[in-house]
């Protein structure tokens, strides 16, 4: 079974986001970019399945600017076999991403696609679901556990009320939640090996997908600053504030 | 441990209610602490080695208030102990015999950020991390960095000439200061808030106060240098066989990266053991265990940090002096490597008693120092566990010794503190080293100083002390 793992290049989780001066978006110049953490978890899960003998090949695909090759290399250094880079200098929205991925899936024929549940830059949480819809495949989102059982996948999902386990028939789509695993560090020997692993580069417009954005960003603003705390004199005042001002009890 | 040995000449006679009232009036009732419960945070410190005694903590808000305090103190011969974030490790910030504490934490204004001169003018009570963040906001970099950065103050950093992990490329606190504002013992204000790199107009007074541990005056503000932000940073966690192999890695890293090698920390395997045991969310970065580890970081003004680290480590692996290495793929992974390094001291605390040494030796002597100190300590206390770690690039090793796993109480172990110090210091000194690389002298090493420092140097230091503080009211009983 081949596993396909889409990976996205995003602003590093630990970078303090700054707005562009004109409010048109987030400042990306000289900002540290990394692999989307949920996608890193997806790569790790795919590698664990491969190491357990449940998968034959792990293929990474990234859609983005040419530097997204670095993001693929990060996954190759973790142990993935090869990469496909679909280049687009303009941002690509989830539906267009899903359509490009559908085309890649048709070429590659994976039995399982593992995606991050969302990317930490736009937090859309749509690509996996849209891809499942386009392909007509079974899907399990927000996975915290993934088991291969013959031609089925048993996936434990984190839902509001607790954990839900679903059984999917291959081929299927799984999106990862934080608790699925803890991704490995890339070792130097594996980083050096990754430099020799193949990455095929294609332009996004070769897939015949309409990449034109369907959304228009009107403005981007910073979240409101935290207000200073207040000291209360006694329990009675605290209870009164919680009841009357915060309205939480 | 029974450190502070308070000499009779430093005992502060009890303050009269009138003097307490006059000192209080300078800062205002609200900022004069006399309540025992509130005083406690100023009198004890993280290692719990020192328990101070003081009738009064003053929390001035301005240089003028500090000046008024010093003036009154010298008129009435009241001993003062300046204090920043109270994170010092040698008892320099603690009032050991009833002195008045001058806590600088309320003086926490950033007076100016000057991106043309690349300087920031800060008051003494600004938290180190606040300066780092403010520099970052101005698209600049402030490289002083140490474990206590979330609570230590720049005034304390300068007074103790703090070192930390950035010293390798950027130097110690002294190298990051351009100017100082200091209140002298008699209350006079020495305004030296200069932004000049070049200023040859007489004796360098600034450098007298940096590292003086508050014994010559109280630093109230400083002009610190800002640096350009590195464009790329690459951090690696490396496993290797010996400190000698770590030295080989250091040599080729410096050859390849020159000034871009910003950190090179050495850790013994036991450091990783205790961090895994006591830390939260700590994992062993490497696939299998190694006797020694190096945490290294290259910060470049170009986009080549990763390529340089990869080239250096690849050479190390091919030449057999690097066992294995992992590279941080994200800032989160970088933070995880550093978290392990910063967890060593708290983890060691939970391993029971620890006899500390903050020594430095010439870089080339580090492997021999660690080997000889291990033998010497084992002779004294056979099952004691050396936990050496530190800034290999600076030759600065925190050669700490944890108590044996069994067969000895913490108290019995710590009773051997001076004895263990003596043999370890002897080895460091023989190799041309120092008994206090970055923590200072305070009271902890005061009695060791005359034995290890050049006699003439001590005489000159005493002369300087007598000139600036003829009454002996500035942090008495510390350093000298």
Automatic annotation (TrEMBL), chain A:
UniProt xrefs under CDD domains: ETF_beta (cd01714)
Stored InterPro entries: ET-Flavoprotein_bsu_CS, ETF_a/b_N, ETF_b, ETF_beta_N, Rossmann-like_a/b/a_fold
MF term (GO), any: electron transfer activity
Keyword list, A-Z: Electron transport, Transport
Cofactors that this protein relies on: AMP
Domain of life where this protein originates: Bacteria
PROSITE patterns with a match to the protein in the record: ETF_BETA
UniProt xrefs under SUPFAM superfamilies: Adenine nucleotide alpha hydrolases-like
UniProt keyword Nucleotide-binding present: no
Function: The electron transfer flavoprotein serves as a specific electron acceptor for other dehydrogenases. It transfers the electrons to the main respiratory chain via ETF-ubiquinone oxidoreductase (ETF dehydrogenase).
Sequence similarity: Belongs to the ETF beta-subunit/FixA family.
Subunit structure: Heterodimer of an alpha and a beta subunit.
Record's protein name: Electron transfer flavoprotein subunit beta
Organism: Nitrobacter vulgaris
């Amino acid at each position: 079974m081949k596993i396909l793992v889409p990976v996205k290049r995003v602003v590093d989780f630990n970078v303090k986001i700054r707005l562009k001066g004109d409010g048109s978006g987030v400042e990306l110049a000289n900002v540290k970019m990394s692999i989307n953490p949920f996608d890193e978890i997806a790569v790790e899960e795919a590698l664990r399945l491969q190491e357990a003998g449940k998968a034959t090949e792990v293929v990474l695909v990234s859609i983005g600017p040419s530097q997204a090759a670095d993001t693929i290399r990060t996954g190759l250094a973790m142990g993935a076999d090869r990469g496909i880079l679909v280049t687009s200098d303009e941002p690509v929205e989830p539906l267009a991403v899903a359509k490009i991925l559908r085309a890649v899936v048709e070429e590659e024929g994976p039995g399982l696609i593992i995606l991050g549940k969302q990317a930490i830059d736009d937090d859309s949480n749509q690509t996996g679901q849209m891809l499942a819809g386009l392909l007509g495949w079974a899907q399990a989102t927000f996975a915290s556990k993934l088991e291969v059982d013959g031609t089925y996948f048993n996936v434990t999902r984190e839902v509001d009320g607790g954990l839900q386990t679903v059984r999917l028939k291959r081929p299927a789509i799984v999106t990862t939640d934080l608790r699925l695993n803890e991704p490995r560090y890339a070792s130097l020997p594996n980083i050096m090996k990754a430099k020799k692993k193949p990455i095929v580069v294609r332009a996004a417009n070769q897939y015949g997908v309409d990449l034109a954005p369907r959304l228009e960003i009107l403005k981007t603003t910073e979240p409101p600053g935290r207000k200073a705390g207040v000291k209360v004199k006694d329990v009675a005042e605290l209870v009164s504030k919680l009841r009357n001002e915060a309205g939480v009890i | 441990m029974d450190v502070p040995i308070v000499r009779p000449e430093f005992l502060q006679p009890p303050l009269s209610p009138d003097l307490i009232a006059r000192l209080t009036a300078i800062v205002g009732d609200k900022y004069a602490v006399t309540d025992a419960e509130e005083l406690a945070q100023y009198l004890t410190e993280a290692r719990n080695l020192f328990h101070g005694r003081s009738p009064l903590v003053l929390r001035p808000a301005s240089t003028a208030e500090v000046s008024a305090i010093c003036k009154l103190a010298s008129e009435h011969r009241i001993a003062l102990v300046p204090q920043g974030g109270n994170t010092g490790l040698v008892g320099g910030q603690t009032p050991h015999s009833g002195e008045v504490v001058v806590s600088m934490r309320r003086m926490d204004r950033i007076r100016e950020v000057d991106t043309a001169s690349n300087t920031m003018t800060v008051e003494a009570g600004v938290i180190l991390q606040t300066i780092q963040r403010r520099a970052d906001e101005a698209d600049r970099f402030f490289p002083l960095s140490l474990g206590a950065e979330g609570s230590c103050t720049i005034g304390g950093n300068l007074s103790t000439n703090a070192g930390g992990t950035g010293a390798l490329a950027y130097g110690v606190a002294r190298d990051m200061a351009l100017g100082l504002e200091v209140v002298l013992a008699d209350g006079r204000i020495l305004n030296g808030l200069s932004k000049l790199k070049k200023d040859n107009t007489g004796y360098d007074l600034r450098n007298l106060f940096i590292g003086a541990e508050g014994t010559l005056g109280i630093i109230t503000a400083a002009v610190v240098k800002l640096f350009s932000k590195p464009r790329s940073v690459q951090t690696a966690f490396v496993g290797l066989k010996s400190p000698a192999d770590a030295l080989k890695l250091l040599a080729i890293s410096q050859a390849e990266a020159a000034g871009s090698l910003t950190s090179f920390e050495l850790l013994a395997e036991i450091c990783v053991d205790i961090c895994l045991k006591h830390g939260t969310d700590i994992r062993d970065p490497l696939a299998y265990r190694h006797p020694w580890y190096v945490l290294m970081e290259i910060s470049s003004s170009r986009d080549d940090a990763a390529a340089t680290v990869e080239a250096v480590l690849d050479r190390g692996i091919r030449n057999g002096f690097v066992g294995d290495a992992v590279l941080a793929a994200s800032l989160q992974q970088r933070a995880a490597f550093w978290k392990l390094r910063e967890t060593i001291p708290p983890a060691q605390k939970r391993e029971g008693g620890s006899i500390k040494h903050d020594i430095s030796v010439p870089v080339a002597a580090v492997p021999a120092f660690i080997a000889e100190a291990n033998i010497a300590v084992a002779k004294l206390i056979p099952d004691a566990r050396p936990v050496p770690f530190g800034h290999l690039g600076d030759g600065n090793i925190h050669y700490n010794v944890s108590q044996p796993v069994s067969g000895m109480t913490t108290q019995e172990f710590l009773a051997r503190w001076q004895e263990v110090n003596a043999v370890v210091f002897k080895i460091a000194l023989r190799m041309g080293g120092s008994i206090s690389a970055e923590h200072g002298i305070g009271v902890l090493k005061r009695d060791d100083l005359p034995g290890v420092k050049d006699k003439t140097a001590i005489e000159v230091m005493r002369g300087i002390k007598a000139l600036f503080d003829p009454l002996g009211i500035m942090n008495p009983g510390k350093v000298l």
